[in-house]
């Protein structure tokens, strides 16, 4: 049987997903627990899976009905829909942190959840959408995306403010000694990797010194105090990771592409990701 051509991502699809990935990547596993989920894989967040399914259904139906706002009887192959979701480049980036990809059963559950009042039939592996308003579907995607981005941006801003202003936090919580030692071990291991003294690479402190010497740090609103990270015990693994991620992003975003500081920041990002994954497995 001839294989159906792959669906090109139109500009709207790319716009939706490209805004989704940085937030998803930043807020993944954003609870205050010390350890990550101990399973090898985790389910994708419902908000993410719903946006993915809606966006690709919208793209498939729009390609079938160019210029139309209403689909009288739009058919989408469930197998093709699953393949598009599982093989999409941007989707693969979003699930590259250990989450399960959506399978056919997951997709059917999502479709049932996001189209509560829509008449849909499933016959011979074909989902048929009856009298579906494409403009309403597009607006639903935009509304869901805005809600998702706004809620996570608010959460990130609150965490960043807590980190930037530690004195505002009430000094009433005492860390369990065993937990405190684990956090310090995690902090020291990650920082030792990012200092890169023996590898000949530019470490995080050297990167900040280079950025300061060239005046690049002037574009950073709140530069991270690298020395403070070494001496303070983080309240959680996630707090430490957020501080270090911001420090690396300072180097990436304040440097011109392909300059030595930019390349050093990109290498630090790779080292940071590898170390976080190593520590995650070790702690589990």
Feature tags:
disordered N terminus; single chain; 284 residues; Histone Acetyltransferase, Chain A
What's the helix and strand layout?
Blueprint: H1 11-27, H2 46-64, E1 70-77, H3 78-87, H4 89-94, H5 104-114, E2 120-123, E3 126-133, H6 134-164, H7 177-195, H8 204-214, H9 226-231, H10 237-253, H11 260-283
Antiparallel strand pairs: 1-3, 2-3
Helix pairs in contact: 1-2, 1-6, 2-5, 2-6, 7-11, 8-11, 10-11
The largest β sheet comes out as:
3 strands, antiparallel
Which range does the strand content fall in?
5-15%
Instruction: Tell how many strands the DSSP assignment holds.
Output: 3
Helix content: 55-70%
Described by the principal axes of the CA atoms, the overall outline is elongated
Rounded average pLDDT: 75
Class by helix and strand content? Answer: mainly alpha
Alpha-carbon distance between the termini?
46 Å
Number of domains: 2
The succession of helices and strands, N to C, reads HHEHHHEEHHHHHH
Low-confidence stretches: 1-40
Strand adjacency order, main sheet: 1-3-2
Number of helices: 11
Outline:
It contains eleven helices and three strands, in the order ααβαααββαααααα.
Please tell me about this protein's structure:
The chain is mainly α. The protein folds into two domains: 11-163, no CATH class; 176-283, Histone Acetyltransferase, Chain A, CATH 1.20.920. 60% of the residues lie in helices and 7% in strands. It contains eleven helices and three strands; from the N terminus they run ααβαααββαααααα. The longest helix has 31 residues, at 134-164. It is elongated and about 65 Å long. The protein starts with 10 loop residues before the first helix and ends with a helix.
């Amino acid at each position: 049987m001839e294989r159906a051509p792959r669906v090109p991502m139109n500009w709207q699809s790319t716009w939706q997903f490209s805004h989704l990935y940085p937030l998803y990547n930043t807020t993944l596993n954003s609870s205050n627990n010390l350890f990550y989920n101990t399973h090898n894989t985790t389910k994708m967040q419902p908000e993410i899976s719903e946006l993915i399914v809606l966006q690709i259904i919208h793209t498939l139906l729009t390609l079938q009905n160019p210029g139309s706002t209403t689909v009288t009887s739009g058919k989408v192959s469930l197998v093709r829909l699953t393949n598009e979701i599982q093989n999409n480049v941007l989707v693969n980036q979003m699930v590259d942190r250990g989450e399960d990809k959506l399978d056919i059963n997951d997709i059917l559950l999502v479709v049932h959840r996001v189209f509560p009042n829509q008449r849909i039939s499933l016959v011979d592996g074909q989902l048929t959408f009856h009298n579906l308003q494409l403009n309403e579907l597009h607006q639903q995607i935009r509304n869901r995306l805005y809600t998702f981005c706004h809620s996570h941006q608010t959460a990130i801003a609150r965490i960043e403010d807590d980190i930037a202003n530690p004195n505002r936090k009430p000094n009433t919580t005492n860390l369990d000694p065993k937990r405190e030692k684990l956090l310090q071990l995690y902090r020291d291991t990650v920082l030792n990797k990012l200092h890169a003294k023996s590898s000949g690479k530019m470490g995080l402190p050297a990167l900040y010194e280079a950025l300061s010497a060239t005046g690049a740090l002037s574009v950073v609103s709140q530069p991270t105090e690298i020395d403070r990270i070494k001496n303070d015990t983080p309240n959680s693994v996630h707090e430490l990771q957020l501080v270090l991620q911001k420090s690396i992003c300072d180097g990436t975003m304040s440097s011109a592409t392909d300059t030595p500081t930019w390349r050093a920041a990109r290498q630090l990002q790779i080292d940071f990701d590898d170390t976080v994954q190593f520590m995650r497995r070790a702690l589990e």
